[in-house]
Design a protein that fits this description.
The complex is a heterodimer. Chain A is mainly beta. Chain A has one helix and ten strands; from the N terminus they run H-E-E-E-E-E-E-E-E-E-E. The chains are: A mainly beta, B mainly beta.
Chain lengths: 183, 243
Amino acid sequence: MKYLNNIFFLLGIVVLMSSCEKIEGCTDENALNYDITAEVNKGCIYCDSAPIEELNTFNDYLIENRPGAEFFQDSVLQIRIEHQRRDYEFQQCGQSGCTFNVTATNLTDFSMLGFRIQFEVPLDQGFGSYFFQVNGTGPFIDLEPGETKDITATFFQQNPMSCAEMVDTGFSFSTIFNGIYIE
Amino acid sequence: MMKNFPLIGVITLVIALFFMNSTNVRAQADSNRVHTFDHFISLQGNELLRQIVSFDDSPDVRNPYLFKYTLRHNNTGFVFNAGFGFSDSKVTDENDVETHVEMNDLRLGLGYQKKLGRVIEAGVGIDYLVGRDRIETISISVQDFQSFIDSSYATSKQVNRRSGFGLQGSLSFVIAKWITVGTEFSIQYIKAEEGFNAINKRYSIPANPDNQTTATITVVNEKDDRTTSEIILPVAIFIGVRF
């Protein structure tokens, strides 16, 4: 009891010492609103948190149309196009609007190396089409037999303000103008 | 939980004072007995004295510790010192800009005190110092340009965190059995980290609902490390009570 009051005083001082309210803010350096003064992580904003709205999806087969090529007039690639809408809250994340995700599947038993392809997909309503034009600085398409790969980067980006739906009946135009088959 | 800590700290001190009082009731029965421990609670009295006696050119008091506590072992003269300073203000100006200023300082240390005669007590000690200042502003503005509405939400924070060590000396006059008046000076070595953050979220909302709202976020972060050595002059006056 003699020293109990001394202990309580010391304890009171120590508790007061830790009474400063922690500063809240985003402590993640990768977030848009990173706060260098924050002590407690709260309320981080990320571009990836913007929801993706699926619009329509399109599947078609690309036919080898180069005379003399292996698999001439055969379906060699299955193309899948996903049309998506994403609205970013902040302009720093990118332009809000519609984007395409293009994947290709090698339907042959051969490896496909250095392929370049182009195709058009008509709009569902009205005139016009989405033209998937080769981006000369983009990567070539290389696929092992049966492999599926994202090939979106091989084309120029579509205008994000274009959100009209595609037809689901097939390409209006498609061509292969580069690439070899290796057994 | 953190927000309740000051209340818990105060309750703990009140419990200690209750035990102290019950102990002193027995001690007063034998007033010639020397206590093993003496407790001193002191408050910085410069503002109070300024109300009573005003000097136009009185120097600025740079001692941040408004409240001091000292536990002294009377047989050896060794002391435990603690000092605490706290300031919190929130102001909203005519432009609806809210400014919140918070300052906290704490020191803990050990030292030695000796009586120089009947009424003077002198002491020396070494302290660990820690403190944090925070200045925060929040500003919201909305402007209607008919074809669109421009609104922005801006916050800024300036935080100074510091810690260090100090040598301190004190001099007190015992003006009554339980009352002391004293001052102190110190030499402090402090390392501080100062951070600044400003975030501005700006929204442009078109009057035509078919047009898209555009938003931008601008963030500024700055950090500065500094080291200071300074002498705190004996300008602060502390009025203390001994238990």
